[in-house]
Amino acid sequence: MAAQVQNLGLGMFTAALHAYASRPKYLQWGEGSGQGVTDTAVDAVGTTTEARTDGTSSQQTTTTTNDTYRVTGTITAAGSRAITEVGVFDAAGSGSPPTGGNMGIYGDFSVINLASGDSIAFTINVVLDQA
Amino acid sequence: MSGDMKVKGGAREMSISAVVTRADGTVEDLGIVSYWHKNPLRRLAVKLQRLFPKK
Questions:
Q1: Does the structure's ipTM exceed the value 0.90?
Q2: CB of A85 within 8 A of CB of A110?
Q3: Which of A37, A50, B36, B52 lies at a C-alpha separation of 20 to 30 Å from B44?
Q4: pTM score, two decimals?
């Protein structure tokens, strides 16, 4: 007996996500780490008052055709920053630092130190699989 | 290496890459800064690749 998602099905799922109006595509960075799967915001916005970037989403191929959902976007520092995390949200949010919306993707990393005017271009890939 | 990503919900792997552009125009390609694969051996392989990059 088989119960599986077909290879073409992976492309269907990423296509549906890419077409979804409320898909996660707004990037916000922070200076914290360690958010769990139930958290709805980056850990520590600290002095990171920058607005969320309206990223670009797309379907990509990693192993199987269109098995990957990708979001790209660039955030520019308005002052000195020690960036250690990035979240991808379904809304631009409001305020400074921005709040609101739902965080759909999250990752933390070793610190990237920035001065005012420096920027980070993020590329975030989510690769789906049958198992 | 970089931090861990929390991956649930059927994803096989996730990655975050970063390219820093300094205010003076200098570009620093940091490559993959955060990575997760459901196969722990694959995670270890990527971690080792980042620790010992090919020259």
A1: yes
A2: no
A3: A37
A4: 0.90
